[in-house]
Write a structure and sequence with these properties.
- This protein is an alpha/beta fold.
- It has one domain: Aldolase class I (TIM Barrel), CATH 3.20.20.70.
- The chain has 16 helices and 16 strands.
- The longest helix has 20 residues.
- The chain is globular.
- It binds flavin mononucleotide and iron/sulfur cluster.
């Protein structure tokens, strides 16, 4: 495993030559176009709503909300920085639980009847920061991501998993695990919780809700629920019933609300550290791996037949906004958030992370080509680092994506979109180098943030603990 760091690729030629050596083709513009209202700066119209440019902020949770579910000072700061970024599409802010039992950790945001006003404040803080940075919020679209963490729920204690699953998974569970198998009645209750949360999100002023279907959480798991008996398992119709019921409920209760879906459009088997800590796919019994939505049954290959069928269903349900992600940060993180340094529950990358970036860009391009009526937000660009603007502009110019989503980059360098659009030089010291501390910290029960590059987090006492964990982890991976 000897991948070149992006920071060592000093010119566009070096970068492209290295990508070429890996067999990776990426859209790439040598010259950035500024001030003409084209490409990244071209507005997009969702009906009457103008979205002022083609940058989107991806949902980024901080494990830092109050235990009652309301935002804390740290949450507010992060959302202000989302507003500062200049991006005109805020895709969901971060995962917000629709029920206490569905929280991914006791400090995940949770929207309920008693704390709607704190979400009004959260949105308004973002708007105020955006107004200050960009002069207007008229062309800003802000949504809220609604979720239930299902298999990965830890609602009461950070270290205690309280999984609620649709089916028993041979690789994500140990033999003596006894996860709670959700009944059809439970799922109907959760559907009602999504609908209720969407109504509360509307009350708090959010312009759309994302009915989250990615990353191994409950919505995503419904799509691979082949082995479940009853009305939520087996056929495509049954595996999408959860989504259809939520959408029908929202349409009835909050008729004007726009609905989007963040989707892990494809998935693979879980990976674990192998020789020298390098990730390798888990072995499974039998000929077919049945639990990867969008997989070809081998556990490692892709088959877009079902994802495309799902996009057709979105069209029927009048869902136009789609944010495409892949896999899961829990069991195959190198696909989902390509990084040179693994998170503490991960493994050394089994492929150059640039290959992972190109896979996500290519996937969105294919889906958009096949189903051009939908509006696509892409993910996984942060690893491109200083070359991100060049790839982003070309991807939009070539029609490979409608909005370029930024995740980790926004934690370390929130103003990147504003700088790019204004033609200012990049703040090189703020560029995310994919150290993965923002993933490792919460895995260790700490708040998430960019500890290496954001001074605010750098100075926190927790930073020392994080460094100690990382040193320990490096030893286990032998690096
Ligand atoms: C600290 C952290 C928190 C995240 N929280 C969420 C979340 O709440 N909801 C979600 O859909 N994705 C979440 N993600 C995934 C990101 O939205 C994004 O898909 C991923 O980081 C890859 O994009 P990037 O390369 O720009 O970082 C999170 C990622 C990180 C690193
Ligand atoms: S901790 Fe900072 S530099 Fe590291 S991956 Fe997260 S945002 Fe990027």
């Amino acid at each position: 495993m000897n991948y070149r760091r992006i920071a060592s690729l000093k010119t566009a030629e070096d970068f492209l030559a290295y990508a070429g050596k890996l067999g990776v083709t990426l859209p790439f513009d040598h010259e950035m176009v500024v001030g003409t209202g084209e490409f990244l700066d071209e507005p997009f119209f969702l009906g009457e709503q103008k979205i002022g440019n083609r940058f989107s902020i991806l949902p980024m949770e901080g494990w830092d909300a109050e235990t009652g579910g309301s935002p804390s000072e740290l949450t507010l700061r992060r959302w202000q920085r989302f507003g500062d970024s200049g991006a005109k599409l805020i895709w969901g802010g971060e995962a917000v639980a629709v029920e206490h039992a569905g929280r991914a950790n006791p400090n995940q945001l949770w929207l309920h009847d008693k704390n709607v006003s704190s979400f009004v404040t959260l949105r308004e803080e973002l708007l105020a920061a955006h107004q200050k940075a960009m002069g207007t919020t008229d062309d800003l679209l802000v949504g809220l991501q609604l979720t239930h963490s299902g298999r990965f729920a830890r609602p009461n204690t950070k270290s205690v998993l309280e999984p609620q699953v649709l089916y028993r998974h041979p690789l994500l569970e140990k033999n003596d695990d006894e996860p709670y198998l959700l009944t059809d009645e439970d799922l109907q209750r959760i559907v009602r919780s999504f609908v209720h949360s969407a109504a509360l999100a509307a009350e708090a002023g959010f312009q759309f809700v994302d009915v989250k279907h990615c990353h191994g959480y409950l919505g995503h798991e419904t799509l691979s629920s082949f082995d479940r008996p009853g009305k939520y398992g087996g056929s495509f119709e049954n595996r999408t019933r959860f989504l259809r019921e939520i959408v029908a409920g929202i349409r009835e209760r909050v008729p004007g609300m726009t609905i989007g879906v963040r989707l892990s459009a494809v998935d693979w088997v879980p990976f674990r550290p192998g020789d020298q800590g390098v990730g390798r796919p888990c072995e499974f019994d039998g000929d077919t791996y049945r639990y990867a939505f969008g997989g070809d049954g081998s556990g490692l290959g892709i088959d877009l037949a079902e994802p495309l069928r799902l996009l057709d269903l979105f069209k029927q349900l009048d869902i136009r906004l789609v944010c495409i992600s892949v896999g899961s940060p829990y069991y195959n993180p190198h696909f989902q958030r390509p990084a040179i340094f693994p998170p503490s529950d991960g493994y050394q990358p089994p492929e150059d992370p640039l290959i992972g970036v190109a896979r996500q860009i290519d996937l969105v391009q294919q889906l958009k080509r096949e189903r051009p009526e939908l509006i696509y937000v892409g993910s996984g660009y942060s690893y491109l680092q200083e070359w991100l603007p060049h790839v982003a502009q070309a991807a939009v110019r070539e029609g490979a994506v409608d909005f370029v989503g930024l995740g980790r980059m926004v934690l370390s360098y929130p103003e990147m979109p504003a700088d790019v659009l204004a033609g200012r030089p990049l703040g090189m010291k703020k560029i995310c180098r994919t150290f993965s501390d923002c993933t490792t910290a919460p895995r260790k029960g700490l708040v998430s943030g960019c500890f290496p590059l954001d001074d605010y987090y750098k100075q926190m006492p927790e930073h020392k603990d994080l460094k100690a964990y990382k040193a320990e982890f490096r030893k286990t991976l032998g690096s």
